[in-house]
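Figure 3 (text version): structure tokens given as input.
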């Protein structure tokens, strides 16, 4: 792995996260209480993981048997009470596997929150059964658990940052040049797209003004239909602009925005065709069928984006 771990590294982490001897003793007691839930934990962990669509890229139901023992081992180590350089190395090995697989950090944080909820519920359940509702150990035990999980999460996320930096630092000069150039080129292209969309928006707004002028020249129906089409195109341009801005800020690019452009352009064409009587009926039916297909595609893409957002 190429990472040198010393006892002082773990001592520093224990100090920073205020994990004292009392907390270590509490975690051992928690381990005695929760060890019987290890199989239930592994099942619940896997079921929770499958709820996230992006997790399917890294794990499937067939993988459950392969990783079940590893998940149970991690669960047991969590309450071992032996938090030294060897334990820190163990966490870093786990982080390396996750980083090599490309598992996103948000998924790691989400699953760590699940572990926190799972363990807290079982701590409360066991202590209430043993000592009654007013047990003061509940808060003390859950606080010790949170300290350890926060330490665990911090180490994993720190490895991700170091992993990305190390990948760049260890690259040869040619690779570094390509990486820097590609990033700058991508940024320039993003700016060019935004500027192009802004210009396009101004042009469409100008077309809208020109179509409104038709009202004052007696061509009411043509001006109204064309103005509505222009507003539709302007709306889709704004959708694309907002989508590109979100993408530059680190978000995902909304595919539905591009489908909406095609849909809006086709609808505008249909509105204009409604004023023309020279076009054959078959052509107009073809436009109608295209609108229907684009509408279905837009609905499907939008639904997948909504599910992914959940």
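Below: residues designed for each position.
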């Amino acid at each position: 792995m190429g990472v040198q771990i010393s006892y002082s590294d773990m001592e520093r982490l224990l100090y920073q996260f205020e994990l004292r001897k009392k907390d270590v003793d509490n975690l051992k007691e928690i381990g005695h209480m929760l060890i019987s839930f290890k199989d239930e934990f592994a099942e619940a962990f896997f079921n929770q993981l499958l709820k996230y669509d992006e997790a399917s890229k890294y794990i499937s139901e067939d993988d459950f048997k392969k990783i079940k023992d590893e998940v149970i081992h991690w669960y047991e180590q969590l309450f071992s009470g032996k938090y030294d350089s060897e334990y820190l190395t163990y966490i870093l090995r786990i982080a390396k596997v996750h980083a090599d697989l490309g598992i996103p950090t948000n998924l790691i944080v989400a699953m760590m929150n699940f572990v926190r909820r799972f363990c807290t519920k079982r701590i409360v359940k066991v202590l209430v059964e043993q000592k009654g509702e007013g047990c003061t150990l509940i808060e003390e035990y859950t606080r010790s658990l949170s300290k350890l999980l926060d330490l665990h999460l911090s180490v994993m996320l720190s490895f991700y940052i170091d992993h990305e930096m190390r990948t760049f630092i260890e690259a040869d000069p040619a690779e570094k040049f390509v990486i820097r150039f590609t990033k700058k080129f991508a940024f320039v292209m993003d700016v060019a797209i935004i500027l192009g969309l802004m210009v396009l928006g101004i042009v469409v707004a100008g077309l809208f003004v020109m179509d409104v002028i038709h009202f004052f020249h007696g061509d009411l129906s043509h001006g109204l239909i064309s103005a509505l089409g222009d507003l539709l195109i302007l709306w889709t341009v704004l959708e694309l602009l907002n989508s590109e801005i979100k993408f530059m800020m680190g978000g995902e690019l909304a595919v539905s925005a591009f489908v909406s452009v095609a849909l809006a352009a086709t609808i505008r064409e249909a509105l204009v065709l409604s004023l023309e009587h020279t076009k054959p009926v078959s052509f107009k039916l073809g436009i109608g069928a295209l609108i229907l297909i684009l509408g279905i595609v837009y609905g499907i893409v939008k639904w997948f984006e909504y599910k992914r957002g959940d």
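Residues 10 and 88 are 7 Å apart (CA to CA).
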